[in-house]
Specification:
13 strands, two-stranded antiparallel sheet, five-stranded parallel sheet, alpha/beta, 24 helices
Length: about 500
């Protein structure tokens, strides 16, 4: 749709302009609503009567309808107009959209009397940015008259399918759509119109990439429900690296002490204990290549890049981060890291009592996690070891968790089922084993059951990525995609 749209048509009151209902004290809200729904108001909108005629005492006047003095009614109407103020956030969004889309035409189409239209000309709206204003009191037509929409379409000279109407009244939205226009209803219960327009007219991927680059090496993890707790970890950085293939926006602490994207002063202040040793150094000695002889020649990765948070001071390396590292590191780097087959062997012998590969390379933490098992299996299959019989129990565990919906309520470190379904989908797409793909085929049905279920932004992104990966039709997850896009802020970040 980004390339098709040529015209935006905005309403004034309730869209470009906001008004304060509490500022009207000459009439009650009920009285004001009564006259707004009257035939006389419609005639005023169409310019058939003047404001003075609409207020004066006669059978169809506002004063007669309400049993009030005409001066009281006029005072209330003037109070409403004088309370109008530009919607600054929307105005800024429109200016930004126009700057990035100079050929886009902007129009105003509003139900407003001649007198009140003249009154608002002094408001601080960027009037010059709009190509034309269609005021009902001047045009002789009002919304939702279809002839008014047809008139605007004809005047713009653009096909209605290339236009968007932005209005705060459902019947006007209906009328616009009936003429073939796209339309956005402005309502506090819906995503803001600014967000919707940005995502229609500005590429969300380009904005996201810009945000990542502008904030390079400052993309930290936070604890869900406790955003004040910041964690600097290898795991998230590796995922970002894999998805973007941009090493300049991430920071890492390699198992053998090497750092990437971390300022020396930051590293020296961390006092972290990585791989069970201070500042990432190994308990063993270093060989001539700078690799430590312990921890499988230091090919085992630690989650944290600095001092562990919300856990023990000495935090062991884990299979999840290690798998993610070898899955994410570009091929050009593989010759510079310890042999992956040493890591695979370590994982294959790091089993719990059920024969399932464990999360931590530490006998004092005998934990297994379905999501971690997925990543381990992905690693084995990527490097040609998917048929290793020692993976069978781990594979069975993942398959049983999938078929029995075991991760519906998340688990210790992954709070939603989407993380598991995402990793299963990755395994499903990456394995060359047809028998494993057949066993994992249930991921498609599980994903469809989760569609439109409210979750946090990361889980929603996991769900969408998984849906796209396994070939679920766009029309089925379109609402989820729109929900994620609505969470993108003006600067490109996604708000959780």
């Amino acid at each position: 749709m980004v390339s098709k749209l040529k015209v935006l048509v905005f309403d004034l009151g309730g869209v470009l302009l906001e008004w304060d209902r509490h500022s009207i004290n000459a009439l009650s809200p009920g009285q004001f609503l009564t006259i707004m729904n009257s035939i006389t108001w419609h005639s005023l909108d169409r310019g058939k009567v003047t404001l003075q005629e609409a207020c004066k005492v006669k059978s169809s006047s506002f004063g007669h309808i309400l049993g009030e003095d005409p001066s009281v009614v006029k005072t209330a109407m003037d109070q409403a107009q004088l309370s109008l103020r530009p919607s600054i956030p929307l105005v800024r969004t429109i200016q930004g959209i126009k700057a990035s889309n100079p050929d886009l035409k902007l129009y105003i189409m509003s139900n407003i009397s001649r007198e009140h239209f003249e009154m608002i000309q002094s408001l601080d709206l960027p009037w010059s940015i709009f190509d034309k204003v269609f005021a009902s009191g001047i045009e002789g037509m009002r919304k939702p008259d279809l002839c008014f929409f047809q008139h605007v379409i004809e005047e713009t000279g653009v096909h209605p399918s290339e236009m968007i109407m932005i209005d705060d009244t459902a019947e006007n939205i209906c009328a616009a759509r009936s003429q073939g226009m796209h339309a956005i209803l402005v309502d506090k219960s819906l995503p803001s119109v600014g967000e919707v327009l940005r995502n229609l007219l500005q590429d969300p991927l380009e904005r996201a990439e810009t945000f990542l680059k502008h904030n390079a090496r400052n993309h930290h993890s936070v604890v869900e429900g406790h955003k004040e707790v910041i964690m600097k970890d290898n795991f998230a950085q590796l995922m970002i690296w894999e998805l973007t293939d941009d090493e300049d926006i991430v920071y890492l602490k390699w198992p053998y002490g090497k750092t990437h994207g971390i300022h020396p002063t930051e590293n020296s202040q961390s006092n972290g204990h990585l791989n069970g040793c201070s500042n990432g150094q190994s308990n063993g000695h270093f060989d001539g290549n700078g690799f430590a002889t312990s921890d499988v020649m230091n090919g085992l990765w630690n989650y944290f890049t600095e001092a562990p948070v919300l856990t023990t001071r000495d935090f062991p390396p884990d299979a999840d981060t290690t798998s993610t590292a070898y899955l994410s590191i570009p091929t050009r780097y593989l010759s510079t890291v310890p042999d992956v087959h040493l890591v695979l062997e370590k994982m294959a012998t790091n089993l719990d009592l059920d024969g399932i590969m464990r999360t931590y390379f530490d006998p004092t933490r005998p934990r297994t996690t379905p999501q971690v098992c997925c990543n381990i299996l992905r690693l084995f299959h990527k490097f040609g070891a998917g048929t290793d019989p020692r993976t069978e129990k781990t594979e069975d565990f993942v398959v049983n968790c999938l078929h029995n919906n075991a991760c519906l309520n998340g688990n210790r470190h992954y709070s939603t089922p989407e993380s598991f379904l995402y990793l299963v989908a990755r395994l499903y797409c990456e394995t060359r084993s047809e028998s494993l793909r057949k066993r994992l085929n249930a991921v498609k049905a599980q994903l469809q059951e989760r569609l439109n279920v409210p979750v946090n932004a990361l889980a929603l992104a996991f769900r969408l990525f998984a849906c796209q990966s396994v070939g679920i039709e766009l029309q089925l997850y379109r609402k989820d995609l729109q929900a994620l896009m609505s969470l993108q802020d003006e600067d490109g970040r996604v708000l959780a």
